[in-house]
């Protein structure tokens, strides 16, 4: 028998041993199936896991064990049913846009300055006349009772304690009045318009009555979306839906008593009609091109959120951080520009601020914290991002948000006007 044959036999025996090991096989499974089309695909870094007492890979057991926001995803995935975790984790189609939202940050470098003497930093930002201690905003996410028994109430309490701006979804699972009470001050309200204008008008009236100063019109979802990953997770879910969808738990109190049907694709005429029928500032969420940014200005829009719905709308392949420079260049400081999509680190936030964003909205990270440890988890996620942003601001020598300019970033792959 040749030496090659002996080596081949030994190799096969070794692989057979690996396959028979529960610990190693599960690790290999995660590597071999690291495919966005596979239901096991996730964005958890291996550093977020540790060996448990029974020799298994297990997640952190308390917030003080977390080193970064990714640590909370492992716990959230354990705590949630596959369908509910799939709702958080999914992108669309091949998840190209979902991945791009993260990967494009690595193509942008930070140009740090030395001997600046910066020891204290001011992270405050002003939006529509109100000053916030931090540019980090809690993005609108519906049906939060799927992740925590008190849903948006828990998120609001965390936002209150940490003094963050919170945007509430049309599809909140808690009445807006109760969320505002928990937050202790008015929220921004995200709007999905209904087919019938009188239904949309009633939703607006209720948001205005609750004191919301800003309505955030979402414009990137009316064509629908192909969320294949979420469908795969649902197939894995054998739980009885009644356990978490009993009456009152995942209801949508902003629309449940109305004849609500999501509107068909909108035009700029709707924006004009919205402005004429509300006293709230109008921000459009979902703008990703300079052409549409110019049209926002022409139609009197008060602000923009650069967004691709977290990679959950169309499969464009463009990350929001790629879209941001052309939007801020077109707006040229005339109205506030915010952004969401893939923000997981303080350095990510710094890069967006350098490109002209005035606020950064996060979604999945605080949901991981919410599902993992409730209010404490959300607060810990916010603390981590603030600490990381503060650190890079000191390292770069930027004493305040206004000092973070385009001079502090460079990229050979993303055009930064």
Q: Strand order of the main beta sheet, please?
A: 6-13-12-11-10-9-8-7
The number of domains is: 1
Q: Report low-confidence residues grouped into runs of 5 or more.
A: 1-5, 7-11, 14-57
Radius of gyration: 23 Å
Task: State mean pLDDT (0 to 100 scale).
Answer: 85
Derived structural class: alpha/beta
Task: Write structural notes for this entry.
The protein has 417 residues and is α/β, with parallel strands linked by helices. It has one domain: TIM Barrel (Alpha-Beta Barrel). Helices cover 41% and strands 11% of the residues. Strands 6-13-12-11-10-9-8-7 form an 8-stranded parallel beta sheet. Helix 11 packs across helix 12. The N terminus is likely disordered.
Can you tag this structure with a few keywords?
single chain, 417 residues, alpha/beta, TIM Barrel, eight-stranded parallel beta sheet, two-stranded antiparallel sheet, 14 strands, disordered N terminus
How is this fold's topology laid out?
Elements: H1 3-20, H2 22-32, E1 50-51, E2 57-58, H3 70-79, H4 82-89, H5 96-103, E3 109-110, E4 125-127, E5 130-132, E6 136-138, H6 151-162, E7 167-168, H7 176-183, E8 188-191, H8 197-209, E9 214-218, H9 228-236, H10 268-276, E10 281-287, H11 290-298, E11 303-306, H12 320-331, E12 337-340, H13 346-354, E13 359-362, H14 364-396, E14 409-410
Parallel strand pairs: 6-13, 7-8, 8-9, 9-10, 10-11, 11-12, 12-13
Antiparallel strand pairs: 1-2, 3-14, 4-5
Helix pairs in contact: 3-14, 4-9, 6-7, 6-14, 11-12, 13-14
